[in-house]
Amino acid sequence: MKKFCIKLKYYQHVLSLMFAIQEINNNPSLLPNITLGFHIYDNLFGSRTTYESVLDLLFRQQNNAINYKCNGKDVLSVIGGLGAEHSIQMATIFSVYKIPQFTYGIFKTGMRSKTDFSSLYSTAPREITHHMGIVRLLIHFGWTWVGIIVSDDEDGESFLRNLTPLLTQNSICISSIRRDKANNYKSKEIIIYLSWILLLAEDNVTILSVDSQLLVYLTLSLEIVESFTKVHIGKVWVMPPQWYFSTSRNGEIKGTSLFQGALSFSMHTNPVPRFQDFLQTLKPDEMLMQFLCLSWQVVFMPCKHCEGEKKQGNLPEGLLETNMSGESYGIYNAVYAVAHAFHAIYLSRQRTIANKSKLKYLNVQSWQLHAFLKNIHFNNGAGHEVLFEKGELSAGYDVINWVTFPNQSFLKVHVGKILPSHEFSISEDAIVWNVRFKQIAPHSRCVESCHLGQSRIVQEGRPPCCYDCVLCPEDMISNQTDAVNCVKCPEDQYANKIHDQCSIKVLNFLSYQEPLGIILISLATSFAAITGLVILTFLKNWNTPIVKANNRNLTCVLLISILCCYFSTLLFIGKPGKVTCLFQQLLFGILFSVAISCVLTKTIMVVLAFVATTPGNQMRKFLKKNVANSIVLCCSLIQVGICIAWLLTSPPFPDFDKHSQIGQIIVGCNKGSVTMFSCVLGYMGFLALISFTAAFLARKLPDTFNEAKFITFSMLVFCSVWISFIPGYLSSKGKYIVAVEVFAILASNTGLLTSIFLPKCYIIVLRADLNSSKKTEKRLTGKRHF
């Protein structure tokens, strides 16, 4: 009974052979006046029977006497076998006699490379095309965790040997590999083992590469497993190309529930419409009935005499397809390839033989066909183009989805294809999945996919497909699922919060438009305006005693330097450029040095004036204006020299810090040389310290308008501001560094302005009586104008 189940699905192979020969014999333009015949042998899936059939074919009526022929006709070519194992067994004999052999199963690429099998041809696509189709199918659906069941023979080992590297290269892992022989499925232990594997396995996809007989036993075993456990296995089965549903003696199709939604790769076929007419009208003769009787008896039970009037059109639905299968189409093309090669020999001899009547007696040897079969290009009986290159058929595979129905019927749906160039396409919407998946494309993975913004880390001791997911590091993203590595964003971009895309970094600088910038500008301009009012006040009261006291010109220089310091802060606000970076630090350093030099000079002049009042003291000569101007000039020139050295060695320049803050590019002025910047600040601090010391010592000297006590307070404010500036500067980032520096300039500058000039302005504006000459003379104990 089991053999009957296997035979019926090969029934169409024989019919396609008969159909092709009938078409050729009825074609007057192909092999005219020549009739092709055929012999059919069944190897019964056995190696011994295969060899016996080959010997019977070669040495008929001689009891298999090797190399002895008597009254026999030569065999032009042989079509068979379906599996690689039987094809090799046949090729070991046929290659000796140079008889072309066409195999219509999966073509093992390495078979023709052997010298013994140089006469072997294939009407099926190359093996690598099938393997790449499986890989592309798995990649398309993201199936990275799959099981494999292969037959325990050379075919199974070859399948694993060739497919496994392709799976590894594409990050697809094999959850389990099972090798079995057909007779093992009778064992109860194997059934239990299969139930454990298939019911508890993590994978949802199983690839099969087993022979037809093993598939029958596998189907029966799995149905027993489902019946025993009351659990529907419900996997995505990737079936072998030659697979077809088997049938029992009573016509029941086996495995329809088990293999619902299965996928397989079938040799690409084109419709052959006349084949259906052939099936409807076929009436086998007496000799052919001896071969077909057994099959027909299974189909048309009861059938005691196997009447010839039975027709293919009366076959029960599902037992025999009316459209050619991939293997049948390969047999059909093989017959046409032999016919066209034979026809080419016929035409070549027709051109060389003068007596045309002798053509019908030509004796064509099988080995002579090889020269034409190696590379042959023709159209078959259906008008389809067929190309053999180096003995291999240039063709691809169709992806078949097997859709089953409760009434024991099924449908083969073409849902995709893979071309000889390995170009793959598939229509997901056309696929009907197993009922277990509820028409949702199943997942078959060891772990859940890593989301966008994550990358994979392989779990220790587990296959590469079993991995953990970690968030991408800072400034790195992954914009695809299951990313192997994160990609670093360009320097002018940053990773968003979920690390799935890069965004343009925002320029970070103290701008005129933002509130902080507006506040600082307002303060600077306001105090600059106040300084301007002080200057006007002093100019209007230029000849009053309080203005004359302590050197009017020196006071004017001090006020102008304070005014310029306020305006210099505007260089720190806005996007820095090359010019602004050069001038902001240099002007700030020089202007403050001039201001502090003036304060220091004022302090020195106060001390000298007091000392000079002693009779006969020689210090009076130092109270001249030239001395005061020289002190200011010398102190300022030292700072100018430091700034020039700074420019020559390592001048400030615009800097774009792309790494300190996430999502921002800090635009600022790089000091160029921190040492030179420290020297500028240090020199200012040195002048301020000397001025503070001198003013502190002279604060109680008797004088009507003694500025020493005000200078002491102003220097105290100045030093306090810049000492506190250092930690604030070092702890700030981005635009706040600039804000701290601007604030320090404004604060120290305002300290000078208010401490020194606020009391004077108070007297000038509100206490004019204290600024009169008479009042001054009463308070003077000596002349203190200098």
Q: What this model shows, in words?
A:
With 786 residues, the chain is of the alpha/beta class. It has four domains: 2-124 and 327-393, Rossmann fold (3-Layer(aba) Sandwich); 127-268 and 397-437, Response regulator (Rossmann fold); 454-504, no CATH class; 515-779, Rhopdopsin 7-helix transmembrane proteins (Up-down Bundle). 45% of the residues lie in helices and 13% in strands. It has an eight-stranded mixed beta sheet with strand order 5-4-6-7-8-12-13-14, sandwiched between helices. A three-stranded parallel beta sheet has the order 1-2-3, sandwiched between helices. Strand 12 and strand 13 form a beta hairpin. Helix 1 (2-25) runs parallel beside helix 10 (326-352). The protein is rod-shaped.
SSE topology:
Elements: H1 2-25, H2 47-58, E1 78-79, H3 84-94, E2 101-103, E3 120-122, H4 127-141, E4 145-151, H5 154-169, E5 173-180, H6 188-200, E6 205-209, H7 212-229, E7 236-239, E8 262-267, H8 273-281, H9 286-299, H10 326-352, H11 370-373, E9 376-379, E10 385-389, E11 392-393, E12 397-404, E13 410-418, E14 424-426, E15 454-458, E16 467-471, E17 476-477, E18 487-488, E19 493-495, E20 502-504, E21 506-508, H12 515-540, H13 545-548, H14 552-568, H15 578-612, H16 625-649, E22 653-657, E23 664-670, H17 674-697, H18 708-731, H19 735-766, H20 773-779
Parallel strand pairs: 1-2, 2-3, 4-5, 4-6, 6-7, 7-8, 21-23
Antiparallel strand pairs: 8-12, 9-10, 10-11, 12-13, 13-14, 15-16, 17-18, 19-20, 22-23
